[in-house]
């Protein structure tokens, strides 16, 4: 029902950045290699995510807006099983219940189908033409839920949240090209050539990219690899530290604290390093035990994992000074 969708939307859709995150996940699930995100006024007026993924046929395009219409096979042992269960097939109907949504998709290239929704109601279905892939337009977010609308922050704040989401997705998926445009200005574009270094270059600039050190290590349970900035290159916030667990962006205070401790005295007070670190492990070692959309995780062998992180970073800097 409409109400159920709006209640679900309360969980999934907090602000433009949460819409972008859900749409990006769908594009990635559809095996897109190129994704363009275009927002107007921080996403409050309009959000558009365009991909070159598998697309949908007519039937699936219409079904995509009914609850629990997910086409995805879920594995219960999946790291994000809890998250998937919670939001299974709910993102599109939830978003459509609090905005004007138009979905244009083609599974074959050429003939495309367009489904338009407003406030959860089907407005129109039409045919048009498009290459293989999917476009989702989300206009006037929260137009019918004034209480939510009121909580939207200044445009610059919403833009930085969107940039954060797209940036971290790009760090998690170096083989996919991500472009972010705001009010017709390109904020960044990653090449999608599989190289983490090139993603960081696109996001943080040439100066930072030049100062990155690759790290790599593994033990019985964990593998870690990625790029960390030399201690001379710091930022005033922790938001340049990204953890990617089995291909998904996550938050973990213990891991971040371990990273900071490994830099130790090398960091000036109030300054933080830049790092993008991928961790791989058996999904059984991960517990997604807090609010699913926050992506906070708990590791069952946390101490061991933190030790590996600390060792590999200390070693990287020890080599530097030789
Ligand atoms: P979920 O992702 O949990 O399956 P969603 O509401 O996010 O649920 O999406 C519903 C369905 O719509 C998906 O299962 C998928 O089949 C289809 N879909 C959504 N976005 C895309 C896309 N960009 N490309 C192809 N299919 C999509
Ligand atoms: Mg989804």
TrEMBL record:
Q: Which GO terms describe its cellular component?
A: mismatch repair complex
Keywords carried by this UniProt record? DNA damage, DNA repair
Family to which this protein belongs: Belongs to the DNA mismatch repair MutL/HexB family.
Tell me the function of this protein.
This protein is involved in the repair of mismatches in DNA. It is required for dam-dependent methyl-directed DNA mismatch repair. May act as a 'molecular matchmaker', a protein that promotes the formation of a stable complex between two or more DNA-binding proteins in an ATP-dependent manner without itself being part of a final effector complex.
- Which molecular function GO terms apply here? ATP binding; ATP hydrolysis activity; ATP-dependent DNA damage sensor activity; mismatched DNA binding
Instruction: Tell me which domain of life the UniProt entry assigns to the organism this sequence originates from.
Output: Bacteria
GO biological process annotations for this chain's record?
mismatch repair
Q: What is this protein called?
A: DNA mismatch repair protein MutL
Q: Where is the DNA mismatch repair protein S5 domain?
A: 200-318
Covered residues, full protein: 9 to 330 of 628
